[in-house]
Amino acid sequence: MSPEPGVELDRWATRLDGAYRQLADGLADNPSVRIEDRDGRDHLVLTGLDRLDEPDSLAELRDDVDPRIPIVDLPEALLEVHSWTGCLDHFTHVSDTTSRKEDMVISVAAALTASAMNIGMRPMVQEGNDALTVDRLYWAEQNYIRAATLTAANAALVDYHSRLPLVSYWGGGELASADGLRFVVPVKSINSGPNPKYFGKGKGAKGVTYYNFTSDQFTGFHCIVIPGTPKDWYYLLEGLLDHETSLRPTEITSDTAGASEMGFGAFRLLGWQFSPRLADAGSATLYRVDPAANYGPIQNLTRGRINTDMMRERWDDLLRVAGSLLTGAVRPSELFRYLTGGGNPTPIGRALMELGRLDRSAYLATYFDDELLRRRVNTQLNRQESRHQLARKIYHGQKGELRQKYREGMEDPLTELEQRASLSTSGSTHSDIGLDSRRWGPTPEPPRICSDHEPLRATRGGKDDRLRRRDPGCCVDGSAPGGSGRGDRGPAEPVSFARRCGRRGRCGRRVPAPHACR
Fold first, then answer.
1. Cβ(218)–Cβ(171) below 8 Å
2. How far apart are alpha carbons 77 and 86 in whole angstroms?
3. Element (H, E) at 480
4. Could you tell me which of 503, 486, 482 has the C-alpha nearest to residue 494?
5. The predicted structure's pLDDT at residue 90
6. What is the pLDDT of residues 269-296, one digit of tens each?
């Protein structure tokens, strides 16, 4: 970034001018975009994307791969993935001691499973097994599971997953997405907020937003628990600045709630690309730098004028904003709240908004013109939604509600949920042995077919739930249950697979046969 504003502003203005001219030149041959006259003003209309038909070879590949993926309980999957990655070794004692009790990995795995599934510790207890006693599990939860160890373990999972050969077909980790999951908090807590749309109406109807970040490799590399439902774009940059994995995303996408002019400006200052999917992109105002430029058919659409003088005057302040964000001197959410000024932006905030208008206009011009860009953004957000569906299935206990009163207590279960979703993705990807054999065999699969083969089986529902929740009545090691099958804070949802097959496991409960659910 040049210390002189003219260098960067001229480059960005040239990029905007080129994007407008490319859109204007290709408008006649672009079937997805048309201009309509509404009340005497031009209005751009963007047609939705048509669904692409899946090739027969992809359906064939899925039919070949899915039967080879074993049906496992979530605790078993956690211990199996640990044997590959060593992720549970990152859960160290709070006193930093290196000594560990025997079978501590089993205790940590049980505590993580209970919290991520929201079923409490009681279903995990097996008296007579030292690793699964009540005291041992609560001791492991209090001394080993905290934000630092959860972050380190998740980083190990993400790093391992990114090195698997199959993952390169999905992406290189440069593209990411961010979106929020809403959780009702039915207990009194100062760290939850009201929103009738998501949490219902009434005096005690409050909740939190679990804002998480997903790479194009299907892994979650950061998450934030936010009270209530504040503006998503306040927290958008934190996922890129604060995560501790080996991924280095340079482009991030979100839905309309995560987009803002100030957010566009901040991303441009930091050298990253912001590529949101806007609900009504055709209604967005397009701004121009040169008032004398002629953009042909889109001339009347570029009605706004960018105030470059304001950006030049505040250029030093904008550079300090970028430096403060990159060095961690200030958190993005705190900085944006200050710059927005409660609806009356500060002078620096207005300059950042002008820069955002310039960058957003260039992005929208490219977005209208490039169908591949629109499909790439849509695909990444669909991957994010797939992880959300998986998270909802895992976090099923107590009706999926978050019943922690304190901020520190409510962060950990959702962070453990993020790690559980990551290990499910890694386990599913690692188990795609059928795809690997076809890839490296005499007739390897083409890259597009491999890229369309997704690892999140549980998101398809029904017959393709290859990785299932653990029955609360069974213990981590598959032996006889030690409790009544109920959590210490309410009943847990039964596993649907247990009703589909007549074979019984060591615990005495019905479990699916190898051929089940195919």
1. no
2. 13
3. none
4. 486
5. 92
6. 999 999 999 888 878 889 999 999 999 9
